[in-house]
Predict the structure of YolD-like protein.
Amino acid sequence: MTGIYDDMIHLPHHISGTHPHMEIIDRAAQFSPFAALTGHDAAIKETARLTDKRIELDEYEKDVMSERLQIIVDNIKEEPRIEVTYFRPDGKKDGGTYVTVTMRVKKVDLYMRILIMMDGNLIPIDDIINIDWHMFETMCDG
């Protein structure tokens, strides 16, 4: 075998006298991917995430909601199980999402304008766009 590197192929491995030996784990880190724009992907996803605009109820719809809330207040001892659709503001950008939940009502606080649910969830009355309860079908709600 005669090649151009035959003169150095059998030389001993060089060990530096000035630099310490690099561990294998540190050597592997040299070849890990580099992300120059850390967080850029997350920012793009956040920008692309859609939010809904808050729906403003007209006076008729507000009256219907008030009547339904009063019916719930009048029947609070039954711990009514209602379905509520309300606006949940987004903490990071304008808008939010509409959420529909079905829960039992513990209390309607008209002074603080919140529904207090049995599980401790608080729903701002001003964010509600719809309330359904089987009792509404048997009563006239305007």
Q: What stands out?
A: The beta strands are 81-89, 96-109, 114-117, 122-124, 128-132. Residues 59-74 form the longest helix (16 residues).
